[in-house]
Amino acid sequence: MIEPPDFPATRGAALERALAAYAALAELGESVEDEWTYVTALAAAGRARMAAVAGRDPGRPLDPVAGTAVVAAATEIARISDPHRAIDWLSTFPAVVELALGGPPAAGPGAVGSSAAAGGPGTPGGPSPVPGDR
Fold first, then answer.
1. Domain positions in the chain
2. CB neighbours of 104 closer than 8 A, spacing ≥ 6?
3. Are 18 and 70 in contact (CB under 8 A)?
4. What is the pTM of this model?
5. What percent of the chain shows pLDDT beyond 70?
6. Crossing angle for the helix pair 83-100 and 36-54, to the nearest 10 degrees
7. d(CA 86, CA 80)
8. Mapping DSSP to helix (H, G, I), strand (E, B) and coil, where does residue 59 land?
9. CA nearest neighbour of 98 among 56, 41, 36
10. What is the predicted pLDDT for the residue at 41?
11. pLDDT on residue 79
12. pLDDT value, residue 7
């Protein structure tokens, strides 16, 4: 009989799983000597991004779909053997984990391209959200 994978039950457990996979990825990327400083800074930023999302309520039960996504992404990065490809994934993997755990969208408040950054409705210099409200 095939055993089902051990999926994380909480946001904190998902974070632990993601950070363990991410550490192995960072170690592989650090093997590129000329990129060591960049890789360590990128890995630190990625760990912080994932912790910020999962750390908001680490004991909260995790939706099984989100747990599946984190496990699938961690499994996928574990297959990477090329250090340069690992470096590419150091910035991608945290975004996948953020998305799975319900993090803010990439174009959140103040992001380039958001209505706030572009002077959208309700922002200083942007159009009024209510006609005649100026």
1. 11-56+67-100
2. 98
3. yes
4. 0.71
5. 73
6. 10
7. 6
8. coil
9. 56
10. 96
11. 96
12. 79
Greatest CA separation found in the chain? 68
| Residue 120 confidence (pLDDT) above 80 | no
Determine the Cα–Cα distance for residues 10 and 16; give it in Å rounded to an integer: 10
- ∠ CA 17-42-77, nearest 5°, is 40
Is residue 104 very low, low, confident or very high in pLDDT (cuts 50, 70, 90)?
Answer: low
Residue listed under structure tokens 């803010």: 104
Q: How far apart are CA 64 and CA 39, in angstroms?
A: 31
The pLDDT assigned to 37 comes to 94
- What is the identity of the amino acid at 9? A
For 7, the token pair is 């999926």
Token pair, residue 134, equals 């100026």
Give the lowest-confidence range in 12-26, 75-89, 98-112.
98-112
Amino acid at 112: V
Contacts 24+ apart (CB under 8 A), 36-41: 38/87, 39/87, 39/90
